Amino acid sequence: MSKVSVSIIMGSRSDWPTMQEATKPLEELGVEFEAKVVSAHRTPERLFKHASEAHTRGVEVIIAGAGGAAHLAGMAASMTHLPVIAVPVASKNIKGLDSLLSMVQMPRGVAVACQAIGGAGAYNAGLMAAQMLALKDEALSQRLQEWRKAQTDSVPVEVE
Ligand code: RP5
Predict the structure, then answer these.
(1) How many domains does the chain have?
(2) Nearest atom in ligand 1 to 41's CA
(3) Confidence label for 11 from pLDDT (cuts 50, 70 and 90)
């Protein structure tokens, strides 16, 4: 079995439609990942075990998505030296501004890389994780550069 390099965690199964976007660039670029429900508030012990042990399983980057009082990414970052990429999931009542502010305003000394609210943020979280891994993986770096060129080439000049 291939080594899982990226661990995608989310506060609830209800976050999966958003967080599934993160899997798209990882699949396109051939990066192995896992996806788990780990809630900062509902399953704090699961979070402690997952975040503190991730590096021992070979995980290199954590992507954490949550909505509302979204403490998942920050708490994960407090328990691991691995880079944590945060995805604010759009909440029902405040449309994700609450999630964004909960994730982005970290205290000095504990960093998370916070993305945009919603699906685009989740997608970019997957892309950012691949870019981090590509720093020490030449084959992945080549795939990433080809992927970027294909994206650029796919943008039409004409509007119709
Ligand atoms: C957060 O509360 C989750 O990340 C989710 O975005 C939100 C709602 O969760 P559910 O009530 O749908 O399980 O913890």
Answers:
(1) 1
(2) 14
(3) very high
